[in-house]
Amino acid sequence: MERLAAHLSDWIHDTVTAGGGVGAVLGLSGGLDSAVVAALCKRAFPDHTTGVIMPCESDPGDAEDGRLTARHFGVAQATVDLSPIYRALCEQLHAGCSEIPGDRLAGANIKPRLRMTTLYAFANHLDYRVVGTGNRSELAVGYFTKWGDGGVDLLPLGNVTKTQVRDLARHLGVPQRIIDKPPSAGLWAGQTDEGEIGVTYEELDACLEGRGGQAARQTVARLGAASRHKRELPPVAPLPPGESDST
Question: String of b and e for 132-162 (b: at least 16 CB within 10 Å)?
Answer without folding.
Answer: bbbbbbbbbbbbbbeebbbbbbbbbbeebbb
